[in-house]
Amino acid sequence: MTEEAASHSAARFERILVTGGSGFVGRYMLEALARAYPSAQRMSLARAGEANPAPGWTPKAFDLLDPAAVEATIGETRPDLVIHLAAQSSAAKSFTAAEETWRVNFIGSCNLAAALARHAAEAVVIFASTADVYGSSLGEGAAHETMVPRPLNAYARSKLAAEAMLADVLPQTTRLIVARPFSHIGPGQDKRFAVASFAAQIVEIENGHAEPRLSVGDLSVQRDFSDVRDVIDAYLRLIAIARDLPARNVFDIASGETRSLASVVERMRTLARRDFEIVVDPQRLRPADIPFAHCAAAKLRAATGWRPQRTIDETLVTLLDYWRAAAAEAPK
Questions:
Q1: Between the CA of residue 208 and those of 71, 203, 302, 319, what are the distances in Å?
Q2: Which among 55, 250, 266, 323 could disulfide-bond with 203, CB atoms 3.0 to 4.6 Å apart, if both were Cys?
Q3: Number of domains the chain is built from
Q4: What is the pTM of this model?
């Protein structure tokens, strides 16, 4: 995001609320928003007992599944910009935790939307959905915002349902931007996700704490990978133009380049400090998976001028270095 765009947008929001600020994307989001909106009052949802999520942010302890608590917090803070990132975000976990996934992703979002409708009806709301909503439709070609969604798991179905609910429950005075990011990776991502798991395993192998065998799932699947920092830049650019958009909007976020997981592993092999063999673990195979995902994100590019700034190798280097640093700091 350019300094000019950040300066222009910074004057437009006075009270910012982020849910999911302690998560992978959330931590980057808090840092970026603090830079872009230094004069705004900035608040982040925090679980009871959690430490302050980031310097310059005020923690707001409330549970999205508690409608009274959500109502009280939104009534007190009346945010004019809401970034809703909180979610059960693992598609793999949703196969064994479908009820939790629906409660967090749909009911929690509904509680938030209802409170915003009553107390912050003119806010800008950014909802982090997922490209997984397209599901089996991705087999028909490159994704676009008007493609019919055919989700394949509880995670994607709960996100798609939340998209529709937000569009209905939030009043037309609310600017709703639904973001559908494709796969994003980078330092700090949980090991439940494939590329982060590969990086963590490689560092264990490098340090001699594990046999030189990398446990993987289906490496033939092809994905569009973006660096999380580039995804954050896309969010900021959308926020900067939000007031000029229609009341309801959907934007895909994708690099425009599709690569197989096998090619990602091979790139990581060249960056690793010790060689390893690759072993397929049946437990890492999903019951239903999308073999190919491609998206040009033409609408986002046309509206904001966004382009990814980091190459896949740059991202993989920072990801491996993150796990190397974590291993060096771990108690011996």
A1: 51, 9, 48, 19
A2: 323
A3: 2
A4: 0.93
